[in-house]
Design goal:
By secondary structure, this protein is of the alpha+beta class. The protein folds into 2 domains: 1-48, no CATH class; 50-105, no CATH class. Helix content is 27%, strand content 22%. It has helices at 12-38, 109-112; strands at residues 53-57, 67-71, 74-78, 88-92, 95-99. The strands form 2 sheets. A 3-stranded antiparallel beta sheet has the order 1-2-3, with no helix packed on it. A two-stranded antiparallel ribbon has the order 4-5. Strand 4 (88-92) and strand 5 form a beta hairpin. The termini are far apart.
């Protein structure tokens, strides 16, 4: 049986990456098509249901500002680097002020639903 792989100047590793990317793209298209057709996601939820988000502050007792965010089976464990001296300094016309650390939590629509 002849070798059907296309030889490139870059080599076989390039082919493997290319094929892997094509398979990943095909998988995404198939899953998305099935969800749009049936209205049911691969985990069984409908397209209107949004998973509950749970935020737990003080997750690590010795790490000030630590927290745990949970949405469905996805978890993010967070803690601010540094000390209180690293807080945000806001320079305005009326003078300087300081602000607490604030985390902006954002999931792409694909993951948040």
């Amino acid at each position: 049986m002849p070798d059907l792989r296309r030889k490139t100047a870059i080599g076989d590793d390039h082919d493997a990456v290319l094929v892997g990317g094509l398979i990943k793209e095909l998988e995404a298209d198939v899953v998305r098509g099935a969800i749009l057709k049936t209205g049911v996601r691969i985990d069984g939820r409908d397209t209107k249901t949004v998973r509950q988000i749970v935020a737990e502050a003080g997750f690590l007792p010795r790490a000030h500002g630590s927290s745990l965010f949970t949405r469905g089976e996805t978890q993010a464990w967070l803690w601010p680097p540094g000390t209180g001296q690293d807080e945000q300094i806001i320079d305005a016309l009326v003078g300087e002020s300081r602000s607490n650390f604030m985390l902006h939590y954002n999931f792409p629509p694909l993951f948040g639903g």
